[in-house]
Every structure is written in C-alpha cells, then in structure tokens.
Amino acid sequence: MTAPDYGQTFALWHGGAQGQWRDYTRHAFVAGLGDGTLPRAAFLHYLTQDYVFLVHFARAWSLAVVKSETLEEMRTCAATVDALVNHEMALHIGVCAAHGIDEAALFQTAEAAPNLAYTRYVLDAGLQGDFLDLMAALAPCVMGYGEIGLHLAQTCTPDTPYKDWIDTYAAPDYQAVCKSVGAMIDDAVTQRIGSLATSPRAARLQQRFTTATQLEVGFWQMGLDA
Ligand SMILES: Cc1ncc(CN)c(N)n1
C-alpha cells in the first residue's frame, strides 16, 4: 500500500507496519462506511465511543504541548488540540444530536475496553517516553483517518449515508492537519535523533506506531461487535 504524502517518518512507519496498517485502513467497518452497509446501531455505538476517545486524545495532544521543545512544535500540537475538540467533534455532536443523544450524555459515555486500552496506551507512551515516543503512538490516529478519508472519498457509493463522516476526513482542513503533523514529526526526528533509519531508537518507535495501529483495528472491531 502506498502511503499518502504525510512526510518521510510517516512513510517509514507505514512501511514497517504494512499488515497491521492494511487491517486498520481496510477493516470491514471502513468498507461498510464506504458502501453504506454498516448498521446504524454499529455506527452510533462507534461514534459515541469515539467522542470519548477524542476527549482523551486531546489530552494526549495537550501533553505533546508540554513535551514540545520549540514554539513551532507547541503551535502545531496546540492547533491539533483545537482541530480535535472544536472541529472533528462537531461531527459527533451533530450526528448524535440528530439521534437524540445530547453532548452531556455523550460526555458521560462509559468507555468500552478497546477504547480505554488505546487512549491510555497513548497517554502512557507520552508519560513514560519523550516527544517522539508520543508522536509514534499518536500518528496512526491522525494519518490513518486521513488515508481512510481519501480512499473512501474516491471509492464510496454515492448514496452511502456515511458521506458526512467520509467528507470530514477527506476535507482539505483535515488533510492539512495530517500534513502539518507529518512535517512537524520529520523536523522533531531530525532535531532529536538525526536520521531515523540509523537511530538505535528506530525499533522502539516503530513498535509504538505498530501497537497503536493494532489498537485502531480493535477500535473498529468494537464498533462492529456492538
Ligand atoms: C479511534 C480513532 N482514531 C482516529 C481518529 C481520527 N482523529 C478518530 N476520530 N478515532
């Protein structure tokens, strides 16, 4: 699979997790969004869980602000927090409101185990490690949905009821987040370890990226199993 152009580091990580990445970006849940066969109940279960997921992901990106070493990194990480809580979540709030679930109820959603496992894994990567450990764990979330959005926008059936979801991640503003995060990660790698390919940290960072990708697969499966 060819990676979208979200930077050199992402391309290396993507290449190092080919099988897991395919399982994530071509999951049956994703196929159901594209061809419209995904049951509405499964989608709503996923979306309510995903709202809580985004709350904790915003916490993890806020930790990245704390772990930043340059003002440029702080700006990109703070902008990503803004994109999560003020833009991406608008989709969740709007769709759920149309189904009678208000934001207060969304915020109270009890986290399913795969959701809890994923978000706390990422937060722990940042608490235990440094900025790069955190970025390796965060990248599959940001870039994977960027890739899925682009893929579904090109291949979905025109009347899928999940067009709003697809459009959110294929949209230029979400794609711009993927590109700016990818560029920031490339700069952060260069500043901290020089070349990723020759760094003794490469294997550990790849492991974090691959584990987070596997946790994404578990998240889709949680939606299907609803
Ligand atoms: C589980 C998950 N992964 C990624 C994204 C895209 N920010 C998301 N909303 N939810």
Descriptive key words:
226 residues; globular; binds 5-(aminomethyl)-2-methylpyrimidin-4-amine; mainly alpha; single chain; 11 helices; Heme Oxygenase, Chain A
Summarize the structure.
It is built from 11 helices and no strands.
Walk me through the structure.
The protein is mainly alpha-helical and 226 residues long. The chain has a single domain (8-224), classed as Heme Oxygenase, Chain A, CATH 1.20.910. It contains 11 helices and no strands. The longest helix has 28 residues, at 40-67. The radius of gyration is 17 Å and the shape is globular. The two termini are 29 Å apart. The chain binds 5-(aminomethyl)-2-methylpyrimidin-4-amine.
**What ligands does this structure carry?**
5-(aminomethyl)-2-methylpyrimidin-4-amine
Oligomer: single chain
Report the mean per-residue pLDDT as an integer: 97
Radius of gyration: 17 Å
Number of strands: 0
- The geometry reads as globular
Pathway: Cofactor biosynthesis; thiamine diphosphate biosynthesis
GO cellular component, one term: cytosol
Keywords: Hydrolase, Thiamine biosynthesis
Catalytic activity: thiamine + H2O = 5-(2-hydroxyethyl)-4-methylthiazole + 4-amino-5-hydroxymethyl-2-methylpyrimidine + H(+); 4-amino-5-aminomethyl-2-methylpyrimidine + H2O = 4-amino-5-hydroxymethyl-2-methylpyrimidine + NH4(+)
How are the SSEs placed, and which strands pair?
Layout: H1 8-15, H2 18-25, H3 28-35, H4 40-67, H5 71-98, H6 103-107, H7 113-128, H8 131-155, H9 163-170, H10 172-193, H11 202-224
Helix pairs in contact: 2-11, 3-8, 4-5, 4-7, 4-8, 4-11, 5-10, 7-8, 7-11, 8-9, 8-10, 8-11
The protein binds 5-(aminomethyl)-2-methylpyrimidin-4-amine.
